[in-house]
Amino acid sequence: MFTITKTTSQNPKFLQLVSELDKQLAIRNGSAHEFFAQFNKVDAIQHVIVAMDDTVAVGCGAIKVWDNKTMEVKRRYVIPDARGLGISKQIITTLEQWAKELGYSRCILETKSDMVPAIKLYEKCGYQRIPNYDQYIDVSSSVCFQKKV
Fold first, then answer.
1. Any idea which of 18-32, 74-88, 92-106, 118-132 has the lowest mean pLDDT?
2. Architecture of 3-148 per CATH?
3. Residue 49 and residue 77: Cα distance in Å, rounded?
4. Suppose 132 and one of 23, 63, 102, 136 were both cysteines; which one would form an S-S bond, judging by CB atoms 3.0 to 4.6 Å apart?
């Protein structure tokens, strides 16, 4: 059984998980890593969740303000040993509920086109593909999604 805690980007367990995520993304993104990394800074993120299995941090996610109606889902990650347990779906659901509680009506996100499990999760959770937004407009490896919350 795991629990989810709302916190901020200063949470040490969140920072540990994000460090692991960044290491994996650096390998996956190769030479494009610097481009994507500039949009994944956590210092300004105020709405973070951490999934815990007893005392072990197993997953995380965050939302940040995009505009007056929209939150962007960022930094969603589940450690490899905890995948397939429904944690990712619970993280997404919790972030959506939090966005709604804060008065936002939509969540958007970007992922890479080769992240097939992530894309399947987002579609299963009701996200619909949208044209790439803002910094991802001309990035052929990016796929963007939205969901009304």
1. 18-32
2. 3-Layer(aba) Sandwich (3.40)
3. 11
4. 136
